[in-house]
Amino acid sequence: MALLLIMAVSLPISKALMSIVPGAMVLNWLIEGQFSAKFRLLKERKSLVLLISVFFVYLLGLLWTNNIKSGVHDIIIQLPLLVLPLVIGTSAQLNYRQVKQIMYTFSAAVVVATLCSVWVLLGFSGKTISDPREMSLFISHIRFALLINISIFSLGWFFLNPGKKSSAEYALLVLTIVWLSIFLIILKSVTGWVVFLVVATVVIFLKLLQIQKLVWKVILIGLLGCLLATPVIYIGYVVNQFYTIETLPENIRQLKTSKGNPYQHDFNNKELENGHYTFLYMNEEEVREVWNKKSAINFDSTSASGFNQYVLYRYLTSKGLHKDAEGIGKLTEADIRNIENGMTNYRFANSLPIYKRIYQIVWEFDVYRKGGNPSGHSVTQRIEYYKMAFQIIKENFWLGTGTGGYDLAYQKKYDQNKFFKEQKFRQRSHNMFLSYLIDFGLIGLIYICTALFSPVFLERKTKSPLLLVFLLIVLLSFMNEDSLNNHDAISFFAFFYPLFLYSKYEKPLESEGMRK
């Protein structure tokens, strides 16, 4: 039990522990002995055999790969999918009290990780954070968002569960859920937001089907309506603001700066900022001269804090200012600091994190739609990743490229692509289903999906709330990330899945309290 608790703690705060604890669990499993009982469980649980067989698919994929080095790397990453289900699935079954202890410990670790992140975000550590997504200190911000969602909905289930709880426990559960929900907004992970909204919608809808009282039905319908309508309305508001485009004067080519100098206009570049064109009304010489008098950062330099000429131009444009001496002169001291810190839009200074993230996505799509480079833009670059993924799949349809073969296949496609010249932007498909298709083809995808998700039916766990919420979160992450190709993601999947699958946590053991 102690190792399970340590593993739960490691998931949000320590990649090193994620690697060490499974090894310790195997060692403990071997020391325990009782191999005949464990082998019997393994033999009886076809679901467990199926689950760990996915690891052996990766081993089999080495037979037709053209990149053994990458293949071995992938196999090492997949080791938790062999080790954790095997140990948990052939050990003593956990009960409600034990699962609750594990989930409370895990949630406490998640809270600690969020507090550490906020400490850094507020500048107390001395580290400068230009994007809240960088404040995920221990694991990827996307995986962190998934863990936060698992914690929120797990604690929500324990809150609603009829098991005996004190008033202090109820209060602590509410505070934790509220804090983690707020932090999820601060983190600015679109994946995290979408997962939260979808899972919350599904949970409320299913609860709506169970409730008989009309009053509660009306309340839940209202809550569901708000949950669905609010993001749609807010996104529409941001999009409308973005595309309220300025009207250009007919004599724009004849206009000059207040100093009598001509403007440079790039009419071919339609990039927008708050409805204003970024590459119109430009006089670089005037901007350089006045900026260098106002700021310690030279106009022609780039800064680690995020400043460059492009940031300056976007910020000026966002305020509807011309890129000339007069425009620079109208900037406040606060504006100067914002620009020096890499802020591209004055509205970001006092807006909600959710506004900034939605605006950035709208801006990304607008730039991409007009032929701009999606490199480094987390949403639109995925479109190019998907295009290349489908090209690779078409060429290796039935059996894929083999374990690790994706690397050379992707590099070939990237070399042919007009974008992604920098190696750091040359990533995988960002979709787990596409990733399986690339590695193992259609045959492999069908087998792996069967092996991963049929255990729910084989173990008759189709009504187990924590397991189903967990799997819904995982499936949603599959659509936006090649999740199980990363060490931290495969670790939390391989830990929670067998934990929920092979435990009896659905109802508190009332008899436990009676025996006491």
Topology record:
Elements (H helix, E strand, L loop, with lengths): L1 H12 L1 H18 L2 H10 L1 H15 L7 H22 L6 H26 L19 H20 L6 H21 L2 H21 L3 H29 L29 E2 L2 E2 L6 H11 L14 H10 L6 H5 L3 H8 L12 H17 L10 H16 L10 H11 L15 H22 L1 H4 L6 H16 L6 H15 L8 H6 L1
Antiparallel strand pairs: 1-2
Can you characterise this structure?
The protein is mainly α and 516 residues long. The protein has a domain at 252-349. It is 65% helix and 1% strand. The protein contains 22 helices and 2 strands. A two-stranded antiparallel ribbon has the order 1-2. A hairpin with a 2-residue loop joins strand 1 and strand 2.
Salient structural properties:
516 residues; two-stranded antiparallel sheet; 22 helices; 2 strands; globular
Task: List how many beta strands DSSP finds.
Answer: 2
Low-confidence stretches: 511-516
Cα radius of gyration in angstroms:
27 Å
Give the overall shape, derived from the CA principal axes: globular
Give helix and strand order, one letter per element, not per position.
HHHHHHHHHHEEHHHHHHHHHHHH
Given helix and strand content, the structural type is mainly alpha
Query: Strand portion, in percent?
Result: under 5%
Within the largest sheet, what's the order of strands? Answer: 1-2
Mean pLDDT: 93
Distance between the termini: 21 Å
